[in-house]
């Protein structure tokens, strides 16, 4: 069997073939029964690996059900992060050099600006962002009602801005996201780069791997310019979204990303406004994915401070209700 | 669907008289041994694990409903694959657009290929667990992301900060490694 056939079989198993490649694989399968038998054996192995991991997952679920979650997650050593960061810088440098030689296309210019935003976001600093859920006047009442079963997802009452969620970020890697439900109960998730954690009212603190609780963040892992957990995270957005740069020559630029039709995960649209010279992000707007595309309410993330936070701010111990430094519930 | 309807019509003429408990036991035994082959056939038609699981549920329901019609003189796996083929066809018609499914003629070729898979082929895969444990930490991490967390190469690449192409090549190498490891185990067992 040729190397191409191996590649096609494996591509099919991983769901990464193009339409033309899938057609080529189909033709190869029909060419001889030996080809089809070889393919069948590959799928048998593939399916058996899946069964193996299914059974592992079931076992883990049973273990998790009897103790606080502490699922091991991939750990990134300082050395591997440094190596990846160095490689990323070399790649970025090469990319910028090449775009200068040939004159950047609009997409290339947007990619270059985006990478600069990510680098800027990792500059050592503590940043505080206010999160606001912005209602669009065209929202239909019946659509807004769809969220009423889950008060945690409802927009905050504009008359009570103190309830607005806050996002705290250190060095673009550590985070604390604090929000109040309408009933006044506060939910906090966070991570210090080594582990992530969640504090829910009347429940024990949950601690897990560094990415586990990032799902509770608005836009999750698509926050790369504000908060990036691993090198290369920004590629998710560049791969999954059509991007463009607006006002490219003005002092305030806007990076716009619209999700590609074949992308399942992630918000529908992301806009990032930033200072043209410094690259400082002023605000980020995120439109969630909705089944009917009629809702246009969005989440607004605004930088409100770069004031230094307490050294242990990003540990869950700091945010326990009985922690002495947290008695005024100022977060 | 036509096959299932046809089977139901035949069941009345055959006048099957076995009790429900006996039938259930027999069906369970036969299904347990043949299920990996049917699941693999469905996996060959749909690469999405969730879709595969949904279709397998439909197949089990159809098999239970039409087991009365099964003619023991026919190969059981071929009969199951006929039902599976129909259920994949129904799934295809539910889709609003192409989701990576093979066409009808390719499906026929695959039904034929999986009909030739023997239960001893299935048993050879029992060595897989040992072979997975022999993988390097990095390779096991890739397997966990692909099979445990159901991420495609692009998603894995985003997690690990590499390219989808690199991940695809690594997954291909890991499967080759596992296949060779299983072959070694089988050869040793046969020699012993």
Brief digest:
The complex is a heterodimer of chains A (331) and B (192). With 331 residues, chain A is α+β, with helices and mostly antiparallel strands.
Task: Report what the structure shows.
- With 331 residues, chain A is of the alpha+beta class.
- Chain A has 7 helices and 11 strands.
- Chain A folds into 2 domains: 3-64; 78-326, outer membrane lipoprotein receptor (LolB), chain A.
- Chain A has an 11-stranded antiparallel beta sheet.
- The termini of chain A are far apart.
- Residues 67-76, 91-104, 140-161 and 326-331 of chain A have low confidence and may be disordered.
- Chain B folds into 2 domains: 2-117, Rna Polymerase Sigma Factor, Chain: A; 123-191, Winged helix-like DNA-binding domain superfamily/Winged helix DNA-binding domain (Arc Repressor Mutant, subunit A, Orthogonal Bundle), CATH 1.10.10.10.
- The longest helix of chain B has 28 residues, at 164-191.
- Chain B starts with a helix and ends with a helix.
- Chains A and B meet through helix 1, helix 2, helix 3 and helix 7 of A and helix 2, helix 5, helix 7, helix 8 and helix 9 of B.
Kindly list the characteristics that best describe this protein.
heterodimer; A: 331 residues; alpha+beta; outer membrane lipoprotein receptor (LolB), chain A; 2 domains; eleven-stranded antiparallel β-sheet; 7 helices; 11 strands; 21% strand; B: 192 residues; mainly alpha; Rna Polymerase Sigma Factor, Chain: A; Arc Repressor Mutant, subunit A; 10 helices; 0% strand; globular
